[in-house]
């Protein structure tokens, strides 16, 4: 992949930044476009430390929104890209219920704008950040890629609609090579503790919340539901270390670079193992050496009891498999949290 030129939208965010590191290490030239809505420019310096000055020289960062057609066109005129990895998008479920139009405009509108321009400038290899959310209320686990798709909220619908748009695009023009990666629950951080997840406001997701309780930013974790039909009654999910997830993108990019009949393929990126909320709490307590106070609470509307995937197709066709464990994720997330208890920008609340 030496010299491969890659456009990474949302490349300073949580999953994006963890993917930019191996891309640069593999010798790619990387251009990040990020509107900085959910990211910090400090990530650039951290990436520099991780990849060294020489590789860092192959990184360009543009503060640019995917909805900004003019700015994006200017960039595409100037730089020729071999492929695009598209992470940019809003991702808060609750907010999407309150502001559906903003989600549709930004996620779907922005993606269509981006695809139009990529097509115009001849960059037709595309990797999309999809999500396990497109399985809706899966009737069965493990979840396989051919299972029926549905969405239970506007955020999920943006992922589902973009998948459909990409399937249509692939049918309309065989030159496109598209891979949809359905992430299960991304957790952990780079083992260096230099980059990690830094959500705005009160975290919606479990691991960032547990992390903030561990550093003293929140009093206790509410466990949403303790009467599910699972090992200990709490919800069970397929937590995937973000470093493994990042490697999944490298594997997908290699496929796009080496095969010409990809069309539009979809892969689950998960471990195939379910872990409950209480198991996560226990693993984090071991990693940080502190007690995480919890209180049992009602079920969160829209939650399912258990969701985990079969990652077999990604193993067969991408040669990718998750290597890191929940213990690794908790250890690495604690290193990140203890070095950056208030995220990249320091104390702001
Ligand atoms: C959530 C989103 C999903 C999105 C994914 C991204 C919902 C309903 N779903 O999935 O669309 O793609 O994040 O990672 O928001 N929990 C607690 N206490 C908390 C937070 C969570 O007990 O404070 C529990 C939940 O009930 C669930 C588990 O932890 O059983 C994981 O929750 P979360 O991290 O929010 O992920 P998902 O619900 O799987």
TrEMBL record:
Name under which the protein is recorded: UDP-glucose 4-epimerase
Organism lineage string: Eukaryota, Viridiplantae, Chlorophyta, Chloropicophyceae, Chloropicales
Annotated pathway: Carbohydrate metabolism; galactose metabolism
Key words of the record: Carbohydrate metabolism, Isomerase, NAD
Catalytic activity: UDP-alpha-D-glucose = UDP-alpha-D-galactose
SUPFAM superfamilies registered for this protein in UniProt: NAD(P)-binding Rossmann-fold domains (SSF51735)
InterPro entries recorded: NAD(P)-bd_dom, NAD(P)-bd_dom_sf, UDP_G4E
NCBIfam families according to UniProt: galE, PRK10675.1
Single biological process term from Gene Ontology: galactose metabolic process
Domain of life: Eukaryota
Native source species: Chloropicon primus
Keyword Repeat: no
């Amino acid at each position: 992949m030496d010299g491969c030129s890659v456009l990474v939208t949302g490349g300073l965010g949580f999953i994006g930044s963890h993917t930019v590191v191996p891309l640069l290490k593999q010798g790619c030239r990387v251009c990040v476009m990020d509107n900085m809505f959910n990211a910090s420019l400090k990530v650039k310096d951290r990436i520099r430390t991780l990849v060294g000055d020489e590789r860092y020289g192959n990184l360009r960062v543009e503060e640019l929104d995917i909805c900004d057609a003019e700015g994006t066109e200017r960039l595409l005129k100037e730089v020729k890209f071999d492929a695009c990895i598209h992470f940019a998008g809003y991702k808060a479920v609750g907010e999407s219920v309150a502001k559906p139009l903003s989600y549709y405009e930004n996620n779907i509108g922005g993606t269509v704008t981006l695809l139009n321009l990529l097509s115009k400038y001849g960059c037709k290899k595309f990797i999309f950040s999809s999500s396990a959310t497109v399985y809706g209320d899966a009737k069965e686990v493990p979840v396989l890629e051919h299972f029926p798709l549905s969405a239970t909220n506007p955020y999920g619908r943006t992922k589902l609609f973009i998948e459909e748009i990409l399937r249509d695009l692939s049918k309309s023009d065989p030159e496109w090579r598209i891979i949809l990666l359905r992430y299960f629950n991304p957790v952990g951080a780079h083992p260096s503790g230099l980059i990690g997840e830094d959500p705005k406001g009160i975290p919606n997701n479990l691991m960032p919340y547990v992390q903030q309780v561990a550093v003293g930013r929140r009093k206790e974790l509410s466990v949403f539901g303790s009467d599910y039909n699972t090992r200990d009654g709490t919800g069970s999910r397929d937590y995937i270390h973000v470093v493994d997830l990042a490697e999944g993108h490298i594997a997908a990019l290699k496929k796009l670079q080496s095969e010409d009949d990809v069309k539009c393929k979809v892969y689950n990126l998960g471990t195939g193992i379910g872990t409950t909320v209480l198991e996560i709490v226990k693993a984090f307590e071991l990693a940080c050496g502190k007690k995480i106070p919890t209180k049992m609470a009602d079920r969160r509307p829209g939650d399912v009891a258990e969701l985990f995937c079969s990652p077999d197709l990604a193993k067969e066709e991408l040669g990718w498999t998750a290597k890191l464990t929940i213990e690794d994720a908790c250890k690495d997330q604690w290193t990140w949290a203890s070095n950056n208890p208030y995220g990249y920008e320091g104390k702001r609340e």
